[in-house]
Design brief:
The protein has about 120 residues and is an alpha+beta fold. It has a single domain, classed as Double Stranded RNA Binding Domain (2-Layer Sandwich), CATH 3.30.160.100. It has three helices and four strands. The chain has helices spanning about 15-30, 75-80, 85-115; strands at about 5-10, 40-45, 55-65, 65-70. A four-stranded mixed beta sheet has the order 1-2-3-4, covered by helices on one side. Helix 1 runs parallel beside helix 3. The longest helix is centred in the last third of the chain and has 32 residues, at about 85-115.
Amino acid sequence: MDNLTTVTFRHVPHSPDLTEQVEQEARKLRRRHDCVQRCKVVIERPHRRRRSGDLYRANVLVSLPGKKLFSPRQIKSQRSHEDPAAAVSAAFNALEQAVNTYVHRWDRPRAAMRLAPIT
């Protein structure tokens, strides 16, 4: 595990496969956006008293220069997954969209300043 990515398991047994998946997703995010500094992931099983099937949830926090972004909340029916790997993928997909939006908003004024004519 690199020291830029932290994985925490809550009410879930530690899994090297899940840790590796989180590492791959974080590397992919850093490759697409070089502004990503740190990535913290919490994989949890919030409802421990269910009659059928355990539900898992993954929350991701990414540190960018001057800003921290969380994986946005999905709609209630899709927030928890029966497979922890699916929860991790869904959280990173939602976070990817949030980072794209932030980077696009952050870069737009700088691009406009570069293109503005000097008078």
